[in-house]
Write a structure and sequence with these properties.
single chain, alpha/beta, TIM Barrel, 8-stranded parallel barrel, 13 helices
Length: 387
């Protein structure tokens, strides 16, 4: 699949879908939906502005597949009542001829008690998250696991009915699918846990269920955290083995979730980016995952891609597609300016005030608050300066 050709060249996927270039708008948490999981006008405006540019594909913020798996205030794909909302999101994501992909997830043990109720928290095992003040979930039983697999399939079906071109399974960032793969979160001794093969079983079952639901002509991707930096976490070799199996299960792409692809840093579960991590990998995850899928699936790189040189570096490492998140938050027209060679015109810092960020960059207020809660994650103009 990988080629070092022009980043603006079309990219054919196994499904038969062709992306017009290698740039993908990355899924970004908005935290801005209505309480019932329907999309807000502010979310649609955020997505529409960025999808109106020249991205080859647009991946939405993740939609929950089950009400007990809500990890933030986002869109839902758990009920037929969400269809009108999903149709609006699909129209916005398609924009100016791009491929619209719905990302789906379940929060598992990091779902928010204030959204799901104090007694609804569940996960692979009764082991709390590494996040501060985390509640201990109850362990899912076999029937619940089967029901969750069905929920992923139903959410994918809703996405296709709503007009999306494909589905991305969120198997990264410490959500439920990731938790089943993690030896830190999954202490089960039944068929769903224990050995590496057993811990792969739920992620692969989700992949198989979604693919069978949407058919071969729809695009299906899987987002993966390439290793866990926490002690006792899974390794890059483990993730590469899963990527190999995902390619065999018909995934059109494997999307590597990284905070910075150059620094080899995945998202920590405790969300504390200030401290050093106990486990690091010397190899570049892009190279390792690309070797594992061996051309059977496209490889998507993400994290810290701000310039055309960054994109080319990731392509050289083995990526086929480039997911752009923070750069497109800061400058919604980033991809068009890159394509036009107008590099000096690209905004590199958010405005100084929250109100300016909201109005200038078309970002919903709750999303602005979320971004500003992570100091240093996105460059920002100093309060006493001007953009």
């Amino acid at each position: 699949m990988h080629s070092l050709s022009d980043p603006w060249s079309p990219v054919p996927l196994n499904s038969g879908t062709t992306l017009r270039n290698r740039f993908v708008l990355a899924p970004m948490t908005t935290d801005s939906s209505h309480p019932d999981g329907s999309v807000t006008e502010a979310e649609l405006n955020y997505l529409s502005r960025r999808a109106a540019t020249g991205f080859g594909a647009v991946i939405t913020s993740c939609a929950y597949v089950h009400p007990a798996g809500r990890a933030w205030r986002g869109i839902g794909a758990s009920d037929e009542s969400h269809l009108d909302s999903l149709r609006a999101v699909a129209r916005a994501a398609r924009g100016d001829g791009g491929v619209a992909i719905l990302q789906i997830y379940d929060g598992g043990r990091i779902a928010l008690p204030e959204l799901i109720g104090p007694d609804a928290l569940r996960g692979p095992s009764a082991v709390p998250s590494a996040r501060p003040n985390a509640h201990t979930p109850r362990a899912l039983d076999d029937d619940e696991i089967d029901n969750l697999l069905a929920a992923f399939g139903q959410a994918a079906a809703y996405g296709m009915e709503a007009g999306f071109d494909g589905i991305e399974i969120h198997g990264a960032n410490h959500y439920l699918v990731h938790q089943f793969f993690s030896p830190r979160a999954n202490r089960r001794t039944d068929r769903w846990g224990g050995s590496l093969d057993a811990r792969m079983r739920f992620p692969l079952a989700v992949a198989r269920t979604v693919r069978e639901t949407v058919g071969d002509a729809a695009t299906v991707g899987f987002r993966i955290t390439p290793f866990e930096s926490e002690a006792g976490g899974y390794t890059l070799d483990d993730a590469s083995a899963l990527a190999n199996r995902l390619a065999a299960h018909g995934m059109d792409y494997v999307h590597i979730s990284m905070d910075n692809f150059r620094r080899n840093s995945p998202q920590p579960e405790d969300r504390d980016w200030t401290k050093s991590r106990q486990q690091v990998e010397s190899r570049n995850p892009i190279e390792a995952i690309a070797e594992a899928v061996d051309g059977r699936s496209a490889v998507v790189a993400s994290g810290g891609i701000r310039t055309l040189d960054d994109a080319r570096t990731a392509l050289t490492a083995g990526a086929d597609l480039i997911a752009v998140g923070r750069a497109a938050l800061i400058d919604p027209e980033w991809v068009d300016k890159i394509q036009a060679g107008a590099h000096s015109q690209i905004r590199t810092h958010m405005p100084p005030s929250a109100a300016d960020i909201e109005s200038t960059l078309t970002i919903p207020p709750p999303m602005v608050r979320y971004l500003l809660s992570r100091p240093g994650w996105i460059p920002r103009v100093e309060q006493d300066s001007r953009p």
